[in-house]
Design brief:
single chain; about 400 residues; alpha+beta; nine-stranded mixed β-sheet; about 40% helix
Length: about 400
């Protein structure tokens, strides 16, 4: 049965009718956020003490914590930076499908390296791994488990490629530096193993002085706004921290669109999070905001870095400069060019999946194996003329 457009239209009218008042309320909250930012911007000791108090009240608190720069800092990129090799990696996957005849998954990682200023063509690297699931074991992997393996594989590939080059190496991936993954009872062991592999790679990158980062385009986390909320909560009311959201609706994205000029970065923040128990010392998660666009059309990204990069001014400057130079290549859609190219290299098309299906089925049958059946549901979806999933 098709969509009931009358119901959709009625709901759209309701949303539109409330848009004006919602905008008025949001503008008031945004003005309050800007006034709080101006008020507390330079009071770093107070800000840090409030974050520590919030952490003691609730260790799961996630917010920004300032280091040694005021909150309203807007720092231009260095005029020039020493030559460096830039490496970007991205991954994609074919997740296992319980409705398919063959139970397998594929992780494909693409990497690209460019020696800035050398005039040499970029070097391209690809790793493709196919994993067959054992039909005699109850070990079906979820999409999140496969994505977890992909994230670790991306960082391992960066380290492997970095070993091919000398001098300064800057490594980029898209997405946050903090590794995420479902940690329920069924896959907790897999997560712990992947996490340890991931931390080992980050440690080796530090050992080799590979400047590593995670580029988060159009960030959704509002850690700086949360810092402002926490700072305004009286000390004796920290027990109500989870309910205290006086700036709900205001985003870090908007806040730094107002603050950062063309190609400027914010101050560097530490991330207050439960994950500080995992990402310790030189690997603790830090970040800054970056305007890859300009004042008229800002393009805000969050750049995650480990503490050892945050604490190295030269490394920080080189990363800042490299990201801006990469974003310029993309013209009116500023985004690091090498990350864009890494995605193009890594993506697995539907046609490629079909070819893998065919090759795998043929190999199994030619060797006397058995290929399962497609589920009835999938068979129905595959009928000629079907246009809906």
């Amino acid at each position: 049965m098709p969509i009931d457009y009358q119901q959709i239209f009625t709901r759209i009218k309701e949303i539109g009718a409330g848009a004006r008042q919602k905008k008025i309320t949001l503008d008031e909250l945004r003005a309050k956020a800007q006034s709080w930012l101006a008020l507390y911007s330079a009071d770093l000791d107070l800000l840090r003490s409030r974050v520590e108090a919030a952490r003691q009240a609730d260790p799961n608190t996630r917010c920004a914590s300032p280091l040694n720069e005021s909150l309203d800092s807007h720092i231009p990129p260095p005029a020039s930076a020493a030559p460096a090799t830039l490496i970007a990696a991205d991954g994609s996957q074919i997740a296992p499908d319980r409705h398919a005849a063959l139970q397998y998954y594929v992780i494909n990682v693409g990497a690209i390296a460019m020696q800035a200023g050398s005039g040499n063509a970029p070097d391209i690297f690809t790793d493709t791994e196919l994993y067959m699931l054992d039909e005699f074991e109850d070990n079906f992997l979820s999409d999140s488990q496969v994505a977890l393996q992909r994230d670790v594989a991306e960082r391992k590939k960066l380290l492997e490629v970095a070993n091919h080059y000398s001098g300064t190496v800057i490594a980029l991936t898209e997405g946050q530096l903090e590794l995420w993954g479902a940690m329920d009872h069924e896959n907790a062991r897999d997560f712990e193993k992947s996490l340890q592999d991931y931390l080992d790679v980050l440690k080796e990158m530090q050992k080799q002085q590979v400047i590593t980062s995670g580029y988060v385009d159009k960030p959704g986390a509002n850690w700086v706004v949360r810092l402002l909320e926490i700072t305004t909560l009286p000390q004796n009311e920290l027990g109500d921290l989870k309910k205290h959201h006086p700036l709900r609706g205001v985003t870090d994205l908007w806040l730094f669109e107002q603050l950062l000029g063309k190609h400027e970065r914010s101050c560097v923040f530490a991330l207050q999070s439960k994950s500080t128990e995992i990402y310790k010392d030189s690997l603790s998660i830090h970040f800054f905001y970056l305007n890859a666009g300009d004042e008229i059309k800002p393009k805000i990204a969050r750049v995650d870095i480990p503490w050892w990069v945050a604490n190295d001014q030269e490394a920080l400057n080189r990363l800042h400069c490299a990201l801006i130079e990469q974003a310029k290549i993309m013209g009116n859609a500023p985004f690091p060019y090498l990350l864009h190219r890494a995605h193009e290299i890594a993506v697995v098309s539907h046609r490629e999946k079909e070819e893998i299906d065919q090759m795998l089925a043929l190999a199994i049958r030619n060797n006397g194996g058995e290929v399962g059946d497609v589920s009835g549901k999938q068979t129905a979806k595959n009928l000629p003329g079907r246009t809906r999933r």
